[in-house]
Design goal:
By secondary structure, the protein is α/β, with parallel strands linked by helices. The chain contains eleven helices and five strands, in the order ααααβββαβαβααααα. It has helices at 3-19, 25-34, 39-50, 53-57, 112-127, 144-152, 175-197, 204-218, 226-231, 247-250, 259-288, and strands at 78-86, 89-96, 102-106, 132-135, 156-159. The chain has a five-stranded mixed β-sheet with strand order 3-2-1-4-5, with helices on both faces. Strand 1 and strand 2 form a beta hairpin. Helix 1 crosses helix 3 (39-50). It is elongated and about 90 Å long. The two termini are 32 Å apart.
Amino acid sequence: MEQGENERAKRLLLGLHERLWHSPASDFTNLLRRAGMSGEVISLAKEAVKCCAICRKYIRLPNRPQLRARGAHVFNETVQMDLFYWESTWFMLLIDEATRFKKCGTIDGQESEHLMKAILELWIYHFGPPERLVLDQQVALMSHDSGAEFERLGINRCPRGTTSGHGSEQHTGTGIVERHVQLTKLTMFKLRAELQRQGLQPTEPELGQEAAMAQNLTLSYGGVTPSMAVYGTMPREFYNPDSEHVMNTEGALETDLTVFERALRIRQTSLAQAQQAVMEDRVARASRTRPHQLDVGELVAGTSEVERSEEHT
């Protein structure tokens, strides 16, 4: 068909699509096949459905990829960064892709110097500059001056794209750190509630720091915790139930807490709350799962379209 005829055919197909209550492209094309339409008309029908303003406005987002084609293999090769707002305070979370070791702390502001200072204090002072820093296009870190500062330490800045509208939360390039942001926030909520019940008033930096460290000590990936993967061994625990030192146990009866007793109570509580947060998060994820449902009885040989993975095609 000529160009003019194609446009007229698409308008007619678009009108039919609207009369059929905005039928999905797969159902619409199946109907046309059963009516004996040619392959050229089927192709025009797919283009017509894509041009429907109503369907484009309410189209369902595709599933986010669950597997990545590449990933870091050694510690500090690739570090993901994200900011999150929790109880009137901004936090920065940094997580290593290879080991899932994370550091969390508060930031003074969202200007370039504030963010770089936080990266320096939370990560670079302890582990050195990472080879790649993956972030979701923080405006303050996208300037030429910021790029020059990253280049000064040999850090390759890797911004990842974002989407707008109802898909704005789906940053597939920084999925690891965003996944751990939710787990860290849940741990912080539970840790604060439990510490307040014990009569302690933790600060925001303490909550972020201890929530991250508790996950480094307790989460297991292939039988190895992030702390073990980074340090080669587990850090020595704050409390040893077999210790013969008097204050190791007598300190639990104190009401006027010293600096070390306060740290011990916060650490032990954070370890317990991290596991509780993981269990609750697991149940929440299971409740949100929507597996694809396919009625095999409705499939018609040679007519129904079935998606197949590339490795089987």
